[in-house]
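Schema walk-through. Below, the input block comes first and the output block second. Nothing else is stored per chain. Lengths vary across the set, and this one has 611 residues.
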Amino acid sequence: MNYLKKLSNFILPYKKYAILNIICNVFYALFSTLAMVSLMPMINVLFGESESGKEKVTVKPVFEDITDIKSFVEDSLNYLVTSILEKEGPQQALLYMIIMIISLFLLKNLFGYLAVFFVTYLRNGVLKDLRDSIYDKIINLPISYYSEKRKGDVIARISGDVNEVQASLLSVLELIVREPLTIIFAIVAMFVISAKLTLFVFIFIPIAGFIISLIGKRLKKHSQKVQEEQGVFLSTLEETLSGLRVIKGFNAESHFNKRFQGSTSRFFRFSNSLGHRQNLASPTSEFLGIVTIAALLWYGGTMVLVDHTLAASNFIGYMALSYQILTPAKAISKASYRVKSGNAAADRVLEVLDTISPLDDKEGAIVKEGFDANVSFENISFKYEDNYVLKNFSLKIEKGKTVALVGQSGSGKSTIANLITRFYDVNKGDITIDKQNIKDLTKKSLRSLMGLVTQDSILFNDTVRNNILLGKEDASEEEVIDALKIANAWEFVKDLPNGIHTNIGDSGGKLSGGQKQRLSIARAVLKNPPIMILDEATSALDTESERLVQDALEKMMQNRTSIVIAHRLSTIQKADAIVVMQKGEIVEQGTHTQLLAREGIYKKLVGMQSL
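--- output ---
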């Protein structure tokens, strides 16, 4: 039941459905018991015996005291049957009894349906809100979180684990309300019929409960293994789909096949182990129930046939009630297993929801509306894991200037882009915009000041228009086309089958590398931010595409503050300042002409690329 407390915030918005479900379950349990009790007067009519073997009651009984409730109920039933028999005959009395039984079973099933009807809104509502909350958490957690997690495992948590929580939620409600109430009402009726026989039944209940608990003891552990392994093979599937060209190009199909089949084989074993334990619940509880009923037949039969302390009709009604207990007892044993599975799934779901992001906005964070003076890196140092990739890095970029960062791979260039956008936080030092530390700003207002164009063109399986609108959701069609023209993308977009309304496929797969990059630039142009960050935006392009993209970049950078992380040095010769980096530190700084004149590292880099 622990996970009900953990999920209470998701359940409370749907509490009215939970209350209605509980009310309907109370009536379901009540009418289930009354339907079985109503069999007794019908048996009396069929076999012509009076209730409980007493003389016929011809005077309507009067309720006097709670201690005489058993006699009052028996006398009332006896009086009712006697009155109908004398006035209308046995056939009519039998018809009335049948109508009463049908009515009670109808009411039982009506309230059973209504209970499920209301709980459906609760289950699906909790499912929707859980998924929404996890997705919201996923997109708000820092990028560093996903460098330690498998994507497939995250997908498994938002799909399979949440489904398991939803399924087990109904089991919990049955466990708490419906089935226990059915058992309680039945036991009360059984006590009224024969306290002695009911006490005899109670000898078997603790034994049955102990045996069932032994079966389910390690269920949560097995369930967790199944859910974790599901995350592993979903990760393999996600990696396979993302890297299909590489897999085929290197003839690595068999390697990935073995890897996937290894995971599914473990999943097969864990699922079998879990399934065997779950499947053992029903036959075990049924067998224990039949053993109890067999003992009842022997002991109760003795009371009817030998001791004559129990009427035959009462004994048949009692047996019906005892069987009435069997079905909910089986349901409770099944539900208890589902609860254990749900608990394991809830732990995995809540692990994501409870993760605290180190990059959350601080209390009272400032909303920055514009950019006025400069961006400053003040003695910053940063490490992803153990070793610093930036060491005491200092740089000031004035508004309207273009600064290029160059250096060999691993020198820390792209890390600068990650830090200024607060995808990561610095370990030492400060990054300020207009003398305000970016940690004091809301992430949304900080990132609204920046446009980002990366080496990998991140596009989505949607239309050209909708991909561009990520930069400015309320932009008109004319604004989208203008942005495409500035990015030199309109020349190919206008020739697409549906123009800007053409779907570009998964990750923009229907377009070339240069076309994708120009759409990324158009997206940044439409956003129209005061600060532009270009992270090796042309390094993966052919010469023709590079020329078009470079032309688009130069148009975009006009009158903007730009940080250009460059691999191809030919693209940054017009920069106001070029910063040469090596092993996380600045080794040279100046214009293209100044750096060439120094004949240092920059000139060597230019010489290597001109060969």
